[in-house]
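JOB MANIFEST
job_type = single_chain_structure
chain_count = 1
residues = 151
[input]
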Amino acid sequence: MPARPGDAGELLTLQRACWLQEALANDSLTDIPAIHESLEEVQEWMATWSTWVVRSEGRLVGAVRGRLEESADGPVWDIGRIMVAPDLQGRGLGRQLLEHIQVVAPPEATAYVLFTGARSTANIRMYKKAGFRVRTDLEAPPLAVVLTKGR
């Protein structure tokens, strides 16, 4: 379901839980912006990204966001913050979120782009299984890799 403004607090909590795991996998607490965001910053990005959430028994257990961006190759659907509660990881919810965010991309998007930690092997494996490819020719945030997939 689409996220609502009232979901911001739970998104912040889920984000910190998920990105703490990423920080441990990538040996860095300082280079991962999602760990350091405030509630106000989550509310700000919710206003500019299309965000979907998954609830189980009232609990927010997963989320993903996307937005159309201009690139040198034309409009791309920027996918971000694929989050699954740590106690529910490994059950396919991340894959379902990834599939959903691609389905809801606007028709003008010519490709999908996302990034993940360079040492986040489970994430990279999932993205590659979904048809994404690591792009060393594109600039990535510190300790991250960019992956793309044509539409």
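[summary]
The longest strand covers residues 59-71.
The mean pLDDT is 91.
exit_status = 0
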